[in-house]
Amino acid sequence: MKRYKGFTLVELLVVITIIGMLIGILVPAVLGALELARQAACANNLSQIGKACQAYAASHNQAWPKIWTTTTAAGAQQPTQWDYIGNTRSGQAPPADPDKGQGTPVESNTANLWLLIKSGLCENPAVFICPSAAGVAVDQGVSDYTRARDFGDPTNVSYSYQNVFGTYKLSSAASPQLAVAADANPCRSDFQGSSGAIQVYMASTPKYENSDWGTIKDEHNLNSPNHKFKGQNVLYLDGHVSFKTDPFCGVKYDNIWTKSVAAAQWKDPDVTKIDMLEANSDINTYRFAAGGGANQGNGNKESLDPSNREDSFLVP
User: Fold this and answer.
1) Could you report the per-residue pLDDT of 194-207, keeping only the tens digit for each?
2) Residue 157 resides in a domain
3) Residue 286 lies in a domain
């Protein structure tokens, strides 16, 4: 009678080791492929947003979505400022009161993106959700989008848009290479807090892959949290989208999350050094009006009028 020999303990351990090695090799590759697919889907979202903006501009004198709001100062109507970082949805109507806030200024930059939904140019609010972003949800707070004025919550939109308040007019007159939208600005307040994505990441003393750049000390020099700080998809005025592994891009190769310094202070940047790149960023963009200290979403108001039309300043 033929006898069959089973696995010895050593052979079993060898098989387990080989399987473990294969898993170690294949899982990162699979996860990497999945992230690339999500990046592509995210880029497609931004491309749709760009096309919707261009369609909007075609019927609005070539101006991209822009809600004008005003505040009363000494009896005169003046351009408003934006609410502190992340608090940009205070005018949204909850389901029980769809007209709440009507007649009051909308101090929100994301309200400009909501115009695309309100006008029917982006019929699905899911377009404003990055597939890679954590803790996000499609805005389902109202049944009649035309009666709402903005997204209901920071988790309902995972993209940042060029500021268009003040005297600024985003139109075809600007450079085609102007960055006008991207994955969410890392300075958004819902990324803050001791357990927030930014603080957790900063605690690990992050460095960019370019070893010459060194340690990143300020959160406004980080990539978007959407793609685990590896980079962000960026939409340009001419409609094309590309994935950038750092926030320095656009017409002047400046930080897209901050205002740039005044023209008189501008220096041609050394793209291999983080300190040279950040020298052209207005470090007061996300600071308190007085007393210094990084803004953590505590009531700061920031002017939305950049120094010139070539300045990409994608606000939360």
Assistant:
1) 778 888 888 888 88
2) yes
3) yes
